[in-house]
Amino acid sequence: MIDFIDYLLGGISSGAIIALMALALVLVWRSTRVVNFAQLGQAMFTTYIALTVRELTGSWFLGLIIAMAAGLVVGVIVHFLVIRPVKRLDTSGAIIATFGVLIALEALAAMVWGGDPEAFPPPINNSGYEAFGRIWPFSPYDLLVLASVVFLVLALSVVFTRTNVGLAMRASAFNPEVARLSGVRVNRMLALGWAIAGLVGAVAGVLVAPLSTLSPTSFDIFLVFAFTAAVIGGLDSLVGAVAFGIGTGLVIALVSGYSDSSNAPLVALVLLVLNLLFKPEGVFSHHKARAV
Amino acid sequence: MEALVQRFPGARLGVNAVTALVIWGLLTWVNQVIEPLMSYYLATAAMYATAMFGMTILLGLSGQVSLGNGALMAVGGYIFALTSMNWQTVPILGTPWNAVWSMVFAGFGGVVFGAAIGGIAARLRGPYLAGLTLGIAVGVPAIANRFPELLGGENGLMLQVPYPAGGYTSGDTSDEAVDDGGEVPLDEEPVYEELPDDFGDFDEEFTDEFGDELDSDPGDLSDEDLLTEDDLLSEDDFLSDDDFLTDEDFTTEDGFEAGIDEEIPEEDLLSEDDFLSDDDFLTDEDFTTEDGFEADIDSDAGADLDAGLDGGSEASEGADITDPAADLDLAGVDAGVDAGFAIEQWQASMAIAVACVVGFIALNLVRGRQGRVWQAVRDDPIAAAVSGISPAGSKISAFVVSSLFAALAGAVFAQILTYVGPGAFTLGLSLSLLVGIVLGGRNSFIGAIIGAVILVWLPEFVLDVSADRGWQNQITNNAPNFIYGLLVVLVVLAAPGGIVGGIQSLAGRLRGQAKSSSSP
Amino acid sequence: MLRIDALSVNYGAVEALKNVSLDVPPGRVTAVIGANGAGKSTLMRTLAGLEKPLAGRVLFNDEDITGSKPEDIVRMGIALVPEGRSTIPDLTVEENLKLGGMWRTHAQRATSLTRVYALFPVLGERRHLGADTLSGGERQQLAIGRALMTGPQALLLDEPSLGLAPLIVTQILELVEHMARDSGLAVLLVEQNAATALRVAKTGIVLNLGEIVKSGPAREIAQDEELRHAYLGY
Ligand SMILES: Nc1ncnc2c1ncn2[C@@H]1O[C@H](COP(=O)(O)OP(=O)(O)O)[C@@H](O)[C@H]1O
Ligand SMILES: [Mg+2]
User: Which of A21, A50, B106, B475 could form an S-S bond across to B471 if both were Cys, CB 3.0 to 4.6 Å?
Assistant: First the structure.
């Protein structure tokens, strides 16, 4: 039982990060009906930028902020240079194009920063809290991760539900023609969706890097996790992405704990297959509920 | 031609067979006249083409974006490795074991896995399918870690390629190595360094046989006792037994089968093998080179390719053995060329044969009824369903066929690498296949072939350029993937048909211009 | 106010509109009637900027707006209520309304919202419910309300009667007619249901196979039996 609690505690922060990554995928899907398979490639790239900034200035926080800005910019660039022109052609073209971006970004990162894994130390203590005479697998850094994710998700939900821009973005996602007829500059909203997704992905990247190491391909596995979570959540639903992101993280933590962490990709695969077989439209799909 | 085919239905088969045979003959001839390194490239390109014929059917004809084909290659590769390692004594249908049997099993495994994945995939739309197969590409190689005893875990499995009899075998040259052994101490020293445990075992065995005599150091004994006349016979025996048995056991394949392999991890054995005999060095070199190749998109592995070509001083897994190997470098290559039968040539002829057989099957499928079914479902699934075609069945069959091809390519890949492992079948491999087919042109087998050539050629081209310009390794090793990524985006934007499609539309436009300028 | 000058629109090889010219004056309803496939929706979509014309011009307050983007055209003061109930079921009623006219000042929008709720009280009652909970007639009111939120000078209504009970149609159209008269709004109403449309309209225009075959006072057109038989099928 205490094992179970330990594994769950240990999975919370990675679950929260997977939730952010899934959120980034959902933001892009909602705005352009494209799954951005380059999303975590972009996050990897901006995390390297954060690392560089941090090495130069010594400030983790500055690194995070600049990574977020970079994520925003990269998202917009990818949208305007790749997705907008491709979208007019065909869907398989858009999918392939995002993989092209992924390949190019991973190679570019390896060219700039080298292919070897680099340590990205946590900004604060990452050893577990001590309480009731034992050490729990939950550290101050985990707390920081959790707080950051909660803050970001709350901020996003306020933006989406309480502001005009959020309303315009949602309308553009649901019915671009009606949005345009209402005077919304839909293309800007789509670009904004990519930008916010890039920002969210950048935060996820910077937060997850200390939990392992950073290399050009080290986020590939998170792409699978995030995709799994986003799809189970319905791919359309921000709430679904967050809920199943955390859920996926916890399941992976449990299975890794009871067996071996090399099983994690298989766990994600099994979850994905089960979902696609039994509930392909996802659990929180907006056709069922008006999830935000 | 078309009229002929119309009149004689069997003629289609004949045309396809002739096409495949002509290409096979041509490539086989090419393989005879080129250098071993070029043969190696040829083998790799043929392997990629084999896998990408399946991508043509899956992506081009059936319209499904799949990243799972690298994982399906792993299925084929592992089945080939396991069957060829463990079933060599098992006669099948009354005939002795043959590598072809392993290929058949690999293909069968591909079909089974393809049907399973296809059954799920048939229900999925574009991005869901791409995501699922992405998960497969990342998840399936992890299965190797799940069953380390069977599949070798992270280290993978070394396999002995069943080279043709009388051809290139390590047995022949290990005799040479033993002959030379008296004169060149180089051969022996690494053995003692590398495998002290196993020598311990041998000491024990000999202790059982020869009693206490082994207590003294064999080296001292030999010097001493050669001078002593009366002990000559027994000492002579002892000496030769000791040296030769040891050498043989470690350098020849007999040693492999003689039950030592239980104590020695297989890859160690082969590594020892590699630098004890001259020609095995070639294998070693290949190994590092291919290591770089296989994980095309994996930047780390790219470094290995570079290192391998630069002189193999920083090879990946066998880093500790590369120094002696480097000494043998020239000798090894020379031996290979002198013998007139380099291992690369054998690999290339095998890969070409498989590619041509697969190409023949593919041509028949695509030019026949099945090809029209796939296309109909891709273009308009509802109309196809109305006319009695099952869209799901069509998608599944495309998956099965492409999985079969991928598994066969994986088996070829295993033989080229003489190794299977998670590091060989990465997401990068799947992405390479996607890159190749998109760049070459997803709608034709020519596109697959061109894509395969690009995958092999571009890294070499970049290497040349980089040598001229003096780029850093970091740049050189990753520039090909960077270029691939950009090209994929560009092709999708500007020429979705890839190189072949681009040429076709260009030709079409020229013809159109010619027509319009001549008609008025 | 809104002037259409020799407009032609093609979909590939299909000539949906051929050389169509008409005026939409302020303060009244102008009705375009015609059978299914006559090109009515094409006309409306082109005016709103959703389709690009092959030839011809659209003038709005003497300004050439041909080929402008829909989001710019609506900002100039031309609001389209497209065919089919163009509400977003995933948003609440009030969110659907607030979507219209986001570029306007807070005060302008507040005034418009009050006016829409006054015009369509049922929308005010259900403002916090999802638009998917509304009935067909209520959704049509919501769609018109959203268009009004943009503060238009010209309102384009594409078959508002589609799928609605006749009583509700009459209610809605009479409301629109009052609005036009009271606030000087130019209304272009497209209908297959000619009788109802011509009852509220001042001017009637008959469209057939992309061409205007007749235009004149609505009452005359309503009484022209030949025309009815030939083009309107009743
Ligand atoms: N998107 C389109 N693509 C091709 N043809 C179209 C399209 N929309 C309408 N059409 C054709 O244009 C003509 C006019 O259509 P429409 O304007 O919708 O007529 P109405 O609204 O009067 O029923 C019809 O022949 C229709 O088939
Ligand atoms: Mg219409």
Answer: B475
